[in-house]
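Example 4.3 (complexes with small molecules)
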Amino acid sequence: MKGIILIGFMGSGKSTIGKLLAQKTGMEHIDFDDLLVQEIGMSVQEFFDEYGEAAFRREETSLLKRFLDHEQVISTGGGIVLRPENRALLKQMAPVIYLHTEPETFISRIKNDQKNVRPLILSKTPEEIQDVFTPRIPFYEESASLVIATSERTPEEIVQEILEKI
Ligand code: S3P
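Answer. The structure with shikimate-3-phosphate bound is encoded below.
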């Protein structure tokens, strides 16, 4: 089986679903944020502070190029679709699954997640978070080969649907 890529906004469940998909398919799971943190030796927050968002986006592009012919389940960072170059790369990497999640769900998950500090939405109000998300919607849709609605469904149900549809 070819690898699977998961895209979607922060808090849409890319890491949880990615791990479960990997378990069910026997594939390896790679989380781009975790891999970057491991390779650059600092947290995402520290990297943003030190080098800025543009540099972080360039790192994401090199990861996509490196994994163009991948055979793993890959959970991407929520902003991977921002660069046109990345969207073009993602189109060559199908199946690319957009985990579509309602704002109430991802906003409450993000706010309750002590482990991952997300520099782009740190101390933003729910309305401001929505403003980060809205312009990205067409980019997720354009990059995905499959859209899966995740709200009010268990990870098992979501993974089942993905496996039936790819
Ligand atoms: C980002 C999402 C984060 C991380 C970084 C930027 C974004 O990943 O890559 O903080 O711009 O949406 P998650 O989607 O895994 O939180």
